[in-house]
Amino acid sequence: MAEPLLEVRNLSVTFHTARGPVQAVRNVSWQVAPGEVLAILGESGSGKSVSASAVMDLIDCPPGEITSGQIIYRGKDLLTMDADERREINGKRIAMIFQDPLSHLNPVYSVGWQIEEALTTHGTARSQAKAKTLELMEKVGIPNPAASAVKYPHQFSGGQRQRLMIAMALALRPDVLIADEPTTALDVTVQAQILSLLEELQHETGMALLIITHDLGVVAEIADRVVVMNAGEIVEQGTAAEVYANPQHEYTKRLIGAAPGQGEMHENPPKTDPILRLENVSKKYGEFTALGGVNFDLCEGETLAIVGESGSGKSTTARVLLRLEEPSGGRAMYNGRDLFTLSPRELFEMRRDIQMVFQDPTQSLNPRMTVYQIISEAWVIHPEILPKTRWRDRVSELLEQVGLQAEHAHRNPHQFSGGQRQRIAIARALALEPRVIVCDEAVSALDVQVQAQVIDLLDRLKDEFGLSYIFIAHDLPVVRDFADRVIVMQKGEIVEQGPVRQIFENPRETYTQNLLAASLDPDPEVQAQRRAERLARTA
Amino acid sequence: MTQASTPVTTPPERSAFQTWLRLLWADKLAFFATLFLLFVLACAIFGPILMEDIATKQNLRGRNAAPFDLSQGFMLILGGDQLGRPLLARLIVAAQNTVAVAAGAVVMAMLIGSALGLIAGYSRGRMAELIPRLADVIMSFPSLLLAVIVLYMLDPSVGNIILVLAITRIPIYLRTTRAEVLEVRERMFVQAATVMGAPTPRIIFRHILPMILPTLLTIATLDFSFVMLAESSLSFLGIGIQPPEITWGLMVAQGRPYLTSAWWLSFWPGLAIILTTLSLNLLSNWMRVALDPQQRWRLEIGGRKNG
Amino acid sequence: QENDVVIALNEELETVEPCMASQSNIGRVILQNISETLTELNTDDGSLMPRLAESWEDQGEGTWRFNLRQGVVFSDGSSFDSADVAHSITRTLSPDLTCEIGAKFFGGMTLTATPVDDNTIEITSDPAQPILPLLMSTLTIVPSETAMEFTREPVGTGPYEMTEWNVGQDIILTRRDDYWGEQPEVAKATYLFRTDDAVRAAMVPAGEADIVPLISQIDATNEATDFAYPNSETTYLRVDSNIAPLDDIRIRQALNMAVDRAAFLGTLVPEAATLATHMTVPTALGADVDLGVPEYNLEEAQRLVEEARADGVPVDTEILLVGRLGNFPNVTEVMEALQQMLSETGLNIKLEMVEVAEWIKYYSKPFAAGDQPALVAAMHDNNRGDPVFSMYFKYACDGLQSGICDEELDGLIADATAQTGDERGDAWRAVFQKAHDLYADVFLFHMVGFSRVSERLDFTPSIATNSELQLSQIKIK
Amino acid sequence: MKKFLFKRAISSAISLTLLIVAVFFLSRLTGDPTDLYLPIDASQEARDNFRAVHGLDRPLIVQFGNYVWDILHLDFGDSIRRARPALEVVLEAFKWTLQLALITMTLVSVAAITLGSLAAFNVGGFFDRVATFFSLIGAAAPDFWVAIVAIVFFSLTLGWVPTSGTGTAAHWVLPIAVLFIRPFGLILQVVRGSMITALSSAYVKTARAKGVTPKKQIFVHALRNAMLPVITVIGDQAAALLNGAVVIETIFGFPGVGKLMIDSILQRDFSVILAAIMVTAIAIFIMNILIDLAYAVLDPRIRY
Ligand SMILES: Nc1ncnc2c1ncn2[C@@H]1O[C@H](COP(=O)(O)OP(=O)(O)OP(=O)(O)O)[C@@H](O)[C@H]1O
Ligand SMILES: Nc1ncnc2c1ncn2[C@@H]1O[C@H](COP(=O)(O)OP(=O)(O)OP(=O)(O)O)[C@@H](O)[C@H]1O
Ligand SMILES: [Mg+2]
Ligand SMILES: [Mg+2]
To answer: What's a single GO MF annotation on this record (chain A) (predicted)?
Structure first.
């Protein structure tokens, strides 16, 4: 194996909190060589992002503190380097794709400018940078780059924002790319496109890739070696195939066992009366049509998955349905009433019934509230749900149900990992005991084990209380395990819908077929085989 | 389920009061600022009862007594004023009116101004257009003219002076609040609250206001000195508080001609104003940190180091 | 420049209209520098000197004849004759213009000016005015072409003409070559306006000004440059003698005795000020320096109040003590001290400091205090040498600012107003005596002002400096 | 954008009208200029005559009608005191005020934003403490103190600048320096507070990861996000200056609109009051429109 390009030795990171220090990373060591892909797998909240941030010098000290360790890049310890040298490396030599694109993009600058800046900071001329930016945006699949470059982050869909982050990180063709969950918000086709783009770059420049992910499929597809982290420590490492085929550590075994897409598909969806019916719902942003007449029903006790390419209007559907954006046309009948014409008073009643888990968990949690306050807010607003004396217990219960701990209730959102925040958002939605929950990529940032746990929980609640879900996801195995019916969207329209088995086994539309074909298998062996086939086909 | 993050030590539960006290102690400047403010408050409450007589006892032949001269009794340690009254006692007595006027005006302006600003920023209806125009009008209405009008028609009582000063300060709170609301209301957590069915007041007070409050407090604390001095210029024009009533602002203004010959006349009350403002601001800076979970570690760590 | 002076005034000039020259800030620039008068008062002895009129005689029946100076030209080149005087009189008294000089000195009378020839004019007043020549020392003469509206380019016969007026910044007067009298030394005078006392005073040491007519007592610390001079102002408390308990003479006497006037001198009031015994300056006609200042005696004052109380006088009624902000230096402190002194007699005194617009309502009839007894602090300026400008207003039953109504006093005033010659002085003396006996007011001080003059100049401010500043009197060392 | 400007122009014009109407009637409740203009001993006849000449004897509503009529003919009336067109008097003074306000606010904004941002970059550090301490003391100190001490020190003792007045550039130094202090302190604090929050956001981390220099992290990435409250407060302070800095104008003999306004109010010179309010109000309204536009420019999420 080649000389390592980046090596982390015995890294430990501690955060100071009001309730004492929290050791987020303990004695972690790993290394990547040029051209190599190292995947870090692990439980949500196990310190993956924090260790990556340490490499980028992004830990705020205090409250964070790197208590021990070295980070060696090309033989030099980054931790002892002075600020100027360090700056030369950041962005140019080592670049990072952040987990949470919305908060990591500056809301007040156009995305084109932000990508350009990555280039100009390290000496590219402005005119050149402009052209390069458009080229990059094109490469990551942003439609109409020239027009998109002058738009602002909030005008993009979740997946598009993630791709913008990727473009920004790739701008200077770094030696080492740290990709923190780079594909969580991407549908499989785009994901495939991005992964091959990364590969291509690796071939060209010998870039080392450190990919943090929970998607075993992605690991199988591109990783050479795997590091598994749990509770701030490395519990296992080895080549991707080895670890998958022959996991040593207890945790790894559980993780691999929990990989989705292996269970039974839901059979013949219970045909009950629709409680929600969307008729011809459309939404325009100025000239741009984000939704062009969407029709579907949601039945009681049903899980309706919406899949489709990034930017196809999935989130928009959800937001319009919840009246976060005013629709441009159409009706949404709920309990015999049109949601779009409700008065504020009636809307209040409806709010209790339909809840949403947002695609960007960080931004959807009030930074000034503790987790306890965030979750119990539901009961402040709707006091009839739960007497105040029981709040504390119920918060603990909900936190445990989503795989967090009761003591987390006192922390504030910024003290959590991406996946943990997403779980807080789920707990909040559940607190209201609604009848319909719209989950926009609700489990995409979770490791497969927690994911399975959460999905189990949702399934159980569905059975117990007759909840219905609109489940927006791009992760097809999860959809396969969880959904009763599936809607496939493209360019603001529904192209296909049907029971889950029908969609997965007999997709009618080519778009759906492509989608399924691009899906990744968690088994590296299988994936290697598919790749070989694919290469053969294109060759 | 594995334990992702274990607090190494679990300190015993403390009462909320103790926690805040510790956070306050962590910032020594803010701590002493608070002590000073409590002292001022005590002067404001008890000063007039205890010192009224000493503070009004004139001695024309011993006017402008120099400070730091203990031979004439402790009360003259800060010197005597134009009429030979001990400045120390007058400062203490004046605290009452001063605090009443300044706090009254600033608090009133802040409450009204930010309430209007919240409505203007949050509502998308007619109010959003109307309320800022109100601010425009007040901003361009000369405060002095307003004072003359109000205090001509009503008499120059403390309450009316508060009213005048409060009205003139409303626009800054209104406009600042509105500007911030325009931005904060677009944030996702506000939408999340909306989805939960949070009624508008809750969204405004629980989600939007806390984000804006630090800025408002910063402005308010600096406004204190402004209001104290503005009040004195009203007195000077004959439409504010008049002798024999006293305020620090009035003392400063009355000492103005003596600036080059008997500096202490306006220096001490001026210093009192500065110290009060400074203390308030240190306290509000502390609050900005203490109330912001993302910043609070600054105090938590400091507390540990020192505690 | 050697012969140029810079003068820093305390107020900006709002107009430069000659018929407004009785306002001291306008007068200081215009009076006798640009616009001259027929006669001029000698403030040292109260005598009347010729200026544009060389002589004058009483024709009887209210008519006076003035013989005008010849060979005088206005700064616009036109020559001065009796038509100019006639026009100036019409203009100053015209109701359309509301000139201050007209309203202040010629209220309630009609003047008819009849030119006899170019250099002689007869002026008749109705009712007859024994002091018409003195009144003419206030009336500024403008050319007969002057329009019947306020002018922004004053033209006069004086030794200077206005060559520049930058509103808000400065006014520049330049010496004329064709002045009829002696050529003054100062060639050019620049007037600046600075409201702040301390800054104004600092301008002389900083070399930015040569004369600062009004500096505050507190700043007047340099003997070489700072001059004190009586400024013809008299401070006093007007007593509402018609309202109980102030209608009782014992109470008024007690008020007078309770004020420790000496304690103010050298403290809140300049050392050089003198205790006042009557309404006009000591140099005015009829001034009686022998009138006694009520002696400070607190016990006696308290006794008088108690005595009055015993007789059923409502001594506990709240008495308003009204002061005017900015009236004179330290006014607030003086009023505070007075309030304390007066309260010590056992009376119930409430101090109220008010702004001028409100103060006027307390000071002039109908009194704003209404039924409430009030003591109104005022400062009266009579630098015209004759008490007629004061006494009727302040003491007659119908006097606009009179707090007293006493038949005998009314008679004495009417008598003195009509007198001429030496008897006039005696008649006024009797009026002063009567007012004094009635304790009609609480007199305080004949005030002094301070001016700062650069050591480069040879100029001593005098009582006249209050209303005019004759550049021709300034010599350069 | 056009629609916004149009709407704003209309609503501002209505506000202005209301303002003028309110001032017209309210100011007349505070008394009559006659007593203040005429000498105290003036006869009733002279007073009546004065009122008639200046139209003060007519019913208020008639006076108002005349005023409106005149305004429609662009005649803002004459100043009673100055016997000149009020608008002319006001514009003369406003010219000075406007210059003073512009220069001062430009300097203040640049200084406060720079120093405030730097203070926020290292919260609790030495620079932060020093900047906070001095700016607060300056902001809380009575302005005439500062002014007089500055004159005594810089003009009398050192002789560097003239004590007061206008004319040369040196004359502007002290007034601007003294006017600078209070808004500087206030704005610095607002910048500091707002920047503390902005600097701890995730997008600043992105910038750091890109290798952006601290200077750009502060002044490009964080600052623009922190600007909303800052420009609002700058606007407020600028409005205060446009209304006239009375103390400074008085002390330094600066012929601005503040002193003019105060004098006119005290003298009840109504035409000047109204003209002055009209002029300053228009300036302030325009400024507020610009500020509202700036919000939308600074933060693309804000749309009107
Ligand atoms: N500022 C902070 N204060 C306290 N604890 C923190 C802070 N930031 C992170 N942590 C804790 O550190 C741990 C590791 O976080 P990290 O973001 O590295 O997780 P992760 O492995 O990336 O998880 P995910 O897959 O959910 O993103 C978490 O348990 C989190 O709660
Ligand atoms: N505020 C906005 N202004 C303009 N265009 C917008 C705005 N919000 C979303 N869009 C556009 O609408 C389209 C649909 O966005 P939406 O967020 O619904 O996509 P999505 O299906 O959820 O995609 P993803 O899977 O990437 O989250 C996108 O092309 C996006 O660029
Ligand atoms: Mg993470
Ligand atoms: Mg989406």
So the answer is: ATP hydrolysis activity
Query: Could you give the strand order of the β-sheet that contains A329-334, starting from the edge strand earlier in sequence?
Result: A288-299, A274-285, A329-334, A337-338
Residues A46 and A188 in one domain: yes
Closest listed residue to residue D16, CA positions, set D282, D275, D258 = D282
List CB contacts (< 8 A) between B278 and chain D: 133, 136-137, 140
* D200–A91 C-beta distance less than 8 A: no
Ligand 2 touching residue A310 (CB < 6 A): yes
CA of residue A230 to ligand 1 center, whole Å: 12
Say yes or no: A289 and A345 in one domain: yes
Judge if A335 and A381 occupy the same domain.
Answer: no
Q: Return the ligand number nearest the Cα of A314.
A: 2
Look at residue A19 and tell me if it is in a domain.
no
Average pLDDT of chain A? 85
Residue A381 lies in a domain: yes
Residue D184 lies in a domain: yes
Whole-number CA gyration radius for chain A: 23
Ligand 2 near A156 CB (within 6 A): yes
- Tell whether D48 is within 8 A of chain C (Cβ): no
For residue A185, the ligand closest to its alpha carbon is 2
Number of domains in chain A: 3
**3-state secondary structure (DSSP) of residue A432:** coil
Per-window interface: C 332-361 vs B, CB < 8 A: 332-333, 335-337, 339-340, 351-356, 358
Helices C249-258 + C298-310 axis angle, to 10: 160
Choose which residue among A105, A140, A154, A157 to substitute to test ligand 2 binding: the one with the highest number of ligand atoms within 8 A of its C-beta. A157
Return the CATH number of the domain spanning residue range B39-54+96-306: 1.10.3720.10
Domain identity same for D204 and D286: yes
Closest CA to A134 of A119, A114, A153, A112: A112
pLDDT means per 10 residues, chain C with 477 residues, are 86 87 87 91 82 88 89 89 90 84 81 89 86 88 88 90 88 90 90 88 89 86 86 88 87 90 86 86 75 86 91 89 86 89 90 84 83 90 78 84 86 85 83 87 89 89 83 87
Q: Is residue D105 part of a domain?
A: yes
Residue D304 inside a domain? The answer is no
CB of B177 within 8 A of CB of B118?
yes
Q: How far is D213 from chain B (nearest CA, A)?
A: 23
Residues D70 and D162 placed together within one structural domain of the fold:
no
Q: What is the CATH number of the domain that holds D101?
A: 1.10.3720.10
Domains of chain D: total: 2
Q: Among D26, D55, D84, where does a domain finish?
A: D84
Domain residues for the domain of D198 are 87-298
A98 lines ligand 2 (CB under 6 A): no
CA distances from D212 to A89, A123, B214, D215 (A): 11, 11, 29, 8
Q: Examine the domain organization and report whether A188 and A282 are in the same domain.
A: no
> Residue A71's closest CA among A104, A46, A93?
A93
Residue from A181, A416, A443 whose mutation best tests the ligand 1 pocket (most atoms within 8 A of CB): A416
CA A445 to centroid of ligand 3, rounded, Å: 8
Q: With contacts defined as CB-CB under 8 Å, which chain A residues touch B289?
A: none
Question: What number is the ipTM of this complex?
Answer: 0.88
Domain extent at residue A388: 366-433
List C-alpha distances in Å: A174 to A178, A207, C336. 10, 7, 81
B82 neighbors B265 (Cβ within 8 angstroms): yes
Q: Does the beta carbon of A160 sit less than 6 angstroms from any atom of ligand 2?
A: yes
D208 and D255 in a common domain = yes
**Contact indicator for C381, C350 with CB cutoff of 8 Å:** no
Contacts of C260 in chain B (CB under 8 A): 60
Q: Which one of A228, A258, A288 terminates a domain?
A: A258
pTM of the predicted model, to two decimals? 0.90
B192 and A428 within 8 Å at the Cβ level: the answer is: yes
